[in-house]
Amino acid sequence: MAAPETSPTPSSLRNAFGHVFSFFILILIGVLAFSIRLFSVIKYESVIHEFDPYFNYRVTQFLTKNGIYDFWNWFDDRTWYPLGRVIGGTVYPGLTLTAGTLWWLLNSLNIPLSVETVCVFTAPIFSAFASWATYLLTKEVKGAGAGLTAAALLAMVPSYISRSVAGSYDNEAVAIFALIFTFYLYIKTLNTGSLFYATLNSIAYFYMVCSWGGYTFIINLIPMHVLLCIVTGRYSSRLYIAYAPLVVLGTLLAALVPVVGFNAVMTSEHFASFLVFIIIHVVALVYYIKGILSPRMFKVAVMLVLSVGLVICCTVVAVLIALVASSPTKGWSGRSLSLLDPTYASKYIPIIASVSEHQPPTWPSYFMDLNILAFLVPAGIVACFLPLSDASSFVILYIVTSVYFSGVMVRLMLVLAPAACIMSGIALSGAFDVLTRSLKFQLPGTSEIFASDAVDTGSESVILNKDGAKEDKSEDSVKERPSKKSKKKEKEKEKEKEKEKEKEKENAGTLSSRSHAGTSSRRPLVLPVEASVIAIFLLVLLVAFYVVHCVWAAAEAYSAPSIVLTSQSPDGLHVFDDFREAYAWLSHNTDVDDKVASWWDYGYQTTAMANRTVIVDNNTWNNTHIATVGTAMSSPEKAAWEIFNSLDVKYVLVVFGGLVGYPSDDINKFLWMVRIGGGVFPHIKEPDYLRDGQYRIDSQATPTMLNCLMYKLSYYRFVETDGKGFDRVRRTEIGKKYFKLTHFEEVFTTHHWMVRIYKLKSPRNRIRGKTKKSKSKSSSTISSKSSRTRKKNPWN
Amino acid sequence: MSLVFRILVLLGIAIPFLAILCHSFSLENPTDRRVLVLVDDLAIKSSHSLYFKSLENRGFQLDFKLAGDPKIALHRYGQYLYDALILFSPSIERFGGSINTAAIMDFVDAGHDLILVADESASDLIREVATECGVDFDEDPGAVVIDHINYAVSTTDGDHSLIAADDFIKSSIILGSNTVEVLKVLSASPSAYSANPKSKLSNPPAIYGSAISLVSVVQARNNARILISGSLKMFSNQFFRYGVEKAGSPTKHDKSGNEQFLTEISKWVFHERGHLKAVNVRHHRVGEVDEPSMYRINDDLEYSVEIFEWTGANWEPYVADDVQVQFYMMSPYVLKNLSTDLKGVYHTSFKVPDVYGVFQFKIEYQRLGYSSLSLSKQIPVRPFRHNEYERFITAAFPYYGASFSMMAGFLLFTIFYLYNK
After folding, report:
1. CA distances from A564 to A560, A609, B14 (A)
2. Looking at the predicted structure, is the pLDDT value of residue A498 above 50?
3. Which of A76, A672, B199, B213 lies 20 to 30 Å from B348 when distance is taken between CA atoms?
4. Does B100 touch chain A (CB under 8 A)?
């Protein structure tokens, strides 16, 4: 990129410096992104976290052991008993293949790492990639300075950290990188009009499709942007090149992923892209005809084409509507529908609503997850309008849509985070830009530099043209509207970057003195020195707070693996390792083919850690099956026994937090079991479990509640712990303290009672007679049968 | 034949039978050998010697103990000392040693057999054991079964409690049952009732007619067999030799059927008869020999199992035409009769249904008098692999044609466009 003929000039030297400098900054950002996510390993241990990652880990193990073809065709008979699950066809393979490749690569380099280690560190590695991709994307939008700022912000944004700490081996870990990178390639194609980048874009999109169901966000956002460009009269051949190959190649590639398959052309999520595909062709045709016809002829042609095009469009739309209307959910999957109508899930699909990460976020979570970015985003949006380019309009669209989606589902904060970082990066770098420029103009000793600046300006613009050679060339060649790329201000950005990092504001003036050139073509906005200094100081303070908050969030809030819990109490640190204790018990004390029933949250962990067959797991593809387990948990003991026995269940596992105060236990999830069970089996009714609409487990609880299996399995023998049966989660004494289990027997309870495992009693070997066993003097009692008959004695 | 009885009432309830593989008798030799006989007093040994002799002649080692003997024990060091238990001690209030109701029930639940005999002085303990086995006695301890029509003519018996009964269960395998349900082997006639002959009958008898069971047998879910009789005298030498004249019947038998009846039924109770075993469950794809770990949908498979019947001395092939195998996943997808080659091998072949999942080969064979066979073997069925689908589908030829012509057309168009200037 460096311009060879200008190399002797000081500005080109500065430019080269700038490249090297930003390269090192990027490396440091990568290191920061990686290392800030290691708190979980340092504070806990190198383990896989939570629920879904265990499944991904298990799949990765299978992949590394059996190869890709067996993985592709894997029919897993250890989950969803007795239905089984076709893993190869129902899983997004991107993450698994990535980690598997990583492992294979390391092994072939004779670096013998375990699969688990690779899995644990996949997310941090990819968050470094993601911050680099953010740099690239933002650089395309607003220049390298904004790019570096955005990359640094993304490297430690808490929202992203929450899903990508070491051990959080989930699809999102690689998907966010894929998302940003796809956007970058789209913008790059849009700016350059290069078919090469368009092809790369399709491949990046393919990787995204492989990785995460969130790819539908891309395939809807990009058409929206294309439509926006067309509507605002920004159509260009670059837009066509950026979009058309993506739809064709991207759809073909997406259809190759087994889990997507024909969905890529058959579900409504993808229809927007096809519609825009048609529109862009019509528009392209119009522009083409406009180019070859005289203006008068063109008017005639417009009439013709419009009428014909309208007819075609109407037909296509009619066909689409007919197709969509013929499917019951109007072709939209439940998750997507709940995106558009936030109340949809809670109304119709309890299984989606029951997942906490599918709930709408609360306001504090925006400040927790985005912190100062939430304030900086509006400024970034304003900056994007000055001036508005294709790229910046895309970023605006991105932030607007992702803000909406994050408001629907807390999980999609993750999609918002990169957009917020980009916007804040633009805003921050813009602010620093103005402020440092003000300083530079007004500080004494810089006046003589002005002269050279004037000279610099010329050479700088030459360099700029070299820098943005491709963009500018293509823009010029297509005679586009003069929305030039925003000025490059790399050196200022480097400067600010450095300041952020090292907080050396003192030499700001001298360093920045050589860096205002790019903007000098316009009359620069200059602020008073004092105001600038104070503003810079405040901004640095703000960013410092952000860093402090991010490190705190990474260290305290988001690093808990949830498989091991800790609590800090006056007498020291308590570690609750009950989950692994229970799973280890299962794997050592039960038969390999035994079936373990639990609520679906623990399905993945049971298969991965205990290696036992489960009835339902976190891949909630079969609502009926989950409802069956929910019904069993909400039924009285005997009915539950029959349900479980019909599923060949040997052991039932419940999670109980009442002793140590672990709030996300089964009793707190129980109402969802009732709802989901009742959704399929109407004899389970939610009001039966509520006293006056209140969910309670104390003596005021309903008899149905006190007799259901979940209550009994959770609180069996609980009163023996403290003599009162005080539940620390619900903060109340339990309603029914002394009872016996007739159809289940307790086989294992972990140290803190967090996991309790029960065994189904085998059916009675023989049946008892009717006579009361406790009868001590048989002569003194008369059977109820004979006393009943006495009343209608015909002989009396 | 004539049998004197106390009350035996059947109040068994059939509960759903969903046994998992429980085949506690797949030993090579299921017949009991060591039998513990608990008696009230050792005189019974001589007064019932005919019965005991018939057992000993069939090779049983009888160990006579007084029921109150403090040294008796059913098991030692976790091993059961006996294969079967005969309780000829109706009046015992408390067993000696470590034996109590729970111990006896554990003995039965471990798959061992039990003969329980009560009489008019049956103690609460004996009644409790019977209740545990699903048989209730009339709660009035003095009650006896009285039948004023089908009584046996006797000089001593004034209250018609000496009953001549011939209402046997109709099973060639003996007077036996198969499920956990208690079966009446010998029921009383419709005119019988249960009452205390010494008290005035002010209320109608609570239990009457053929609801009264004189001898009951139980086969527990684990194939342990239990015989409960209401009369100890029935086993005595006296009744074995007793000549029967049924009241109102012109025929007079010189000898009662008690001996034959009790010998036959004890053969059943002690697993000398009616005991099945299933071995060598095999399944494989048609044309292959090895058992696969997983089937594919629409595979053709062959299934075979060998079923033998214990004759008391050796295993003979079991012959029946009603053995069925299920290919089961929550409900049977395939239910087929197995054909036998008369040498014990049952065999069938069928097509795996077009549904994937974890299936089971299930045999649930429960026939009256036979021990129950309950086999299940888990086998997953997978969908097609990616390369097992049809490569070229005839119906799709238009699409192939369309895509190839499109490619060719695009190539020609490009050449034309680029080089035709």
Report:
1. 7, 13, 48
2. no
3. A76
4. no
